[in-house]
Description:
By secondary structure, the protein is α+β, with helices and mostly antiparallel strands. The chain has one domain. The chain has 3 helices and 10 strands; from the N terminus they run ααββαββββββββ. It has helices spanning 2-18, 34-38, 60-68; strands at 43-45, 53-58, 75-80, 86-91, 96-100, 106-110, 117-121, 126-130, 133-139, 145-149. The strands form 2 sheets. It has a 5-stranded antiparallel sheet with strand order 1-5-10-7-8, with no helix packed on it. The chain has a 5-stranded antiparallel sheet with strand order 2-4-3-6-9, with helices on one face. β3 (75-80) and β4 form a beta hairpin. It is globular, with a radius of gyration of 29 Å. The protein starts with a helix and ends with a strand. 26% of the residues are buried.
Amino acid sequence: MLALIAALSVLLPIFLITAPSAQATDTTVSTPTDAQAMAWTPKVSPFSGGQERVHRNVSTETRNRLLANCGLLYLCVAAGEGDGQHSVFELYYCTERTLSNFLGAGAVTNNQTGKSARLLNQDRSVYMTVKPNRTPTRVPSWDTVYYIQVC
């Protein structure tokens, strides 16, 4: 009996070290949703700040409101973010801009006075001309548009 007690006293500490913990552990891995994994951020360069603004992660309703209320002397440009949200840029300064991550369909409101805006392909050929008009104009696809000439 003494031998059994001695053997248990040796084996018990080993068993406690190798036994699984009684505490529950969360082994699930947090993965982004399909929409988050596909999301991107549209960018305009140069973007001056100051009188220019960008609204990110806005709903379709907010995007439509921003385009419909584009300020006088502004070109308002909307692009999707791939997750159901949108970025809306309010461009004021009359410079050519480079676009990145502008994908799929979008919209533009040209509320400048007497100045057309031009959306340009990579080779700088005109994809679309947007005449001054307070009504949002649909852009069928941003995929081939690399530049915007604001005015």
